[in-house]
Design a protein that fits this description.
Length: 275
């Protein structure tokens, strides 16, 4: 079936996906002074710099049902993948939009999938949907193929202040990442929450530990996607370490958009991989 539309939210960190009908619904990053819609026109670096110097409260909000309906457009067959429903209302509002859409557009079919993750892991899932759609699989075969597809997400963070201040992780878990020079490594748990794995002093040690975690989590070579928040050097260094350890690995490096930049903060890395 190659008339599938793939719809994501902006937590996936992509604004386009070649070869298929594609759209995304933006989340929003808010402060008292400014609000940043995480669409293709957002200047992410400028937002990160602003937030870095901003000391007052900041928060985020998920797309509402109308935002999702905009992204659905007038497509007949839609597969929509959201950020983890355990930490965001995005999945829930997408489900509301699905009900409205199907009621209004007879014969249409919308499937909403909770990624239990974010960023690069969502992109791997979307690319799997695209691959199956291009291979002319039916809607149900695409969903079966996606369910059978194994992916994981690791994160390497220098600060977890925004995650803790917004109640997405416990203050205790966030504390480790607040110490100067310490990188906290964790993963998306199978419930779609943050699970801490290790604390590492310095970038080099953190990247070495990341490769070890990737191995422990079942990576044997395959696709890896690294999204960074204003940290291309660490992302490229990690890509090199992974390719040294797994010469057959297909590693892509990209930049976080607004939502992931807000939570991963300056220097943060998100690593999605097949396992
Ligand atoms: O609805 C909203 O306002 C969005 C809330 C999103 C909260 C979590 C975003 C995490 C972004 C940080 C590290 C990766 C965590 C993975 C957990 C499954 C990136």
């Amino acid at each position: 079936m190659n008339n599938i539309k793939i719809v994501l939210d902006s937590s996936a960190n992509i604004t386009q996906l070649d070869g298929v009908d594609f759209a995304f619904a933006p989340l929003t990053i808010e402060t008292k002074e400014r609000s940043f819609v995480d669409d293709a026109s957002l200047d992410v670096a400028e937002m990160v710099e602003f937030l870095y110097n901003y000391k007052d409260r900041s928060s985020t909000s998920c797309p509402n049902a109308a935002d999702w309906l905009d992204a659905f457009g007038d497509a007949q067959n839609i597969i929509c993948i959201t950020i983890t429903g355990s930490l965001s209302g995005s999945y829930s509002t997408a489900c509301t939009a699905k009900r409205l859409y199907e009621a209004k557009n007879e014969g249409s079919r919308v499937e909403i999938i909770d990624s239990l993750s974010t960023g690069p892991e969502i992109v791997l899932m979307a690319e799997k949907v695209r691959e199956l759609a291009m291979a002319d699989r039916s809607f149900d075969e695409i969903l079966d193929g996606l369910r059978a597809y194994g992916t994981q997400l690791l994160f390497v963070l220098e600060s977890m202040k925004n995650l803790a201040n917004n109640g997405r992780v416990s203050k205790l878990a966030a504390k480790a990442a607040g110490l100067l020079g310490i990188r906290a490594i964790g993963k998306a748990s199978d419930r779609g929450t943050l699970e801490m794995l290790s604390k590492n002093r310095g970038s080099e040690k953190a990247l070495e530990a990341t490769v070890e975690h990737i191995k422990e989590m079942g990576f044997v070579g395959g696709k890896v996607r690294i999204d960074h928040c204003l940290n291309p050097d660490a992302a490229e260094a990690l890509a090199k370490k992974i390719k040294d350890a797994f010469p057959a690995a297909l590693v892509t490096v990209a930049e976080c958009r607004g939502l992931c930049s807000f939570y991963a903060e300056m220097g943060g890395l998100l690593i999605g991989f097949e396992a």
